[in-house]
């Protein structure tokens, strides 16, 4: 498939369902496996597969003499909970040595809470009353499955390319309608921006609490299979380059009187990692050092101010791979060339 809706990427999916080269579930002897779980920022259909940060990182580490695989488990639209469930239900079988949980705070925290999640139709959610172990509400997922399998539309979806094309167009218009509705419901401020409010509204505090539960479960289950675990904070374009944020302020004047803290999510995520003694990689400084020159981020759809707020460009993926290589070495998360792997 040739993806041109945002960016320009040729998309292939391997026999295991990953946007990745062909792999085997059984880990090859002597291989150090890194498994990356995330959303569309990780799957990265906006660039070619060999331009994704996972593939770039793999090539960089192999150039060091390491026998390594960097597996891309990213899926467009997945929440942190869905990334964790992918690891729990599928990823464990690949016997990863290192699990990287890629978090795009710009929308991932909202996606933890059904009241804030914009694109999580039919997704599972953590029940808010969950305590030590997370309890998951699958009711929306089950209802979505029943609706999807209802005939005759189920057969049409499978057999008709025209139907699938029309469905894609309908989803695009629905997304634009959802953006307008969210704008109206939040006093003229796009909902995705409210994660940068200072102070946060109670609903966003609750969403962060739900994310924390997912993070704890994810790290715990990675440790249970003897895998190292680290969080990647994937930066957003408006945080890297404040001029992008300033365009948003001009387009939505009701934002001007409010207080905003663009680094708030980065600081919050780092605080959670420190609280639970987890490794965290925050490449934002590397991105800010490279803000001049070719764009690091594409133009997102929805409004004029979203120019530069989209997914990473090929250059953005290069910067991400460079930052990850440096951090993995500094944090002792990759073996030395001469060390053996399990």
Summarize the topology.
Blueprint: E1 2-3, E2 9-10, E3 32-37, H1 40-43, H2 53-63, E4 68-72, H3 80-89, E5 98-103, H4 105-108, E6 125-126, E7 136-137, H5 139-148, H6 153-159, H7 161-185, H8 202-224, E8 228-233, H9 237-240, H10 242-251, H11 264-275, E9 279-281, H12 284-289, H13 314-330
Parallel strand pairs: 3-4, 3-5, 5-8, 8-9
Antiparallel strand pairs: 1-2, 6-7
Helix pairs in contact: 2-13, 3-8
Folded structure, characterized:
With 342 residues, the protein is of the alpha/beta class. It has one domain: Rossmann fold. 42% of the residues lie in helices and 10% in strands. It has helices at 40-43, 53-63, 80-89, 105-108, 139-148, 153-159, 161-185, 202-224, 237-240, 242-251, 264-275, 284-289, 314-330; strands at 2-3, 9-10, 32-37, 68-72, 98-103, 125-126, 136-137, 228-233, 279-281. The strands form three sheets. The chain has a five-stranded parallel β-sheet with strand order 4-3-5-8-9, with helices on both faces. β1 and β2 form a beta hairpin. It is globular and about 60 Å long.
Radius of gyration from CA coordinates: 20 Å
Number of domains: 1
The CATH superfamily title:
SGNH hydrolase
Class of secondary structure makeup: alpha/beta
Instruction: Estimate the mean pLDDT confidence.
Output: 88
* Element-level helix/strand string: EEEHHEHEHEEHHHHEHHHEHH
Task: Write out the strand line-up for the largest beta sheet, numbering strands in chain order.
Answer: 4-3-5-8-9
Strand content: 5-15%
Helix content: 40-55%
Instruction: Give start-end ranges of low-pLDDT stretches.
Output: 163-169, 171-176
Name given to the CATH architecture: 3-Layer(aba) Sandwich
How far is the N terminus from the C terminus?
37 Å
CATH topology name, in short, is Rossmann fold
Q: Give the beta-strand count.
A: 9
Q: Please report the number of helical segments.
A: 13
Rough shape? globular
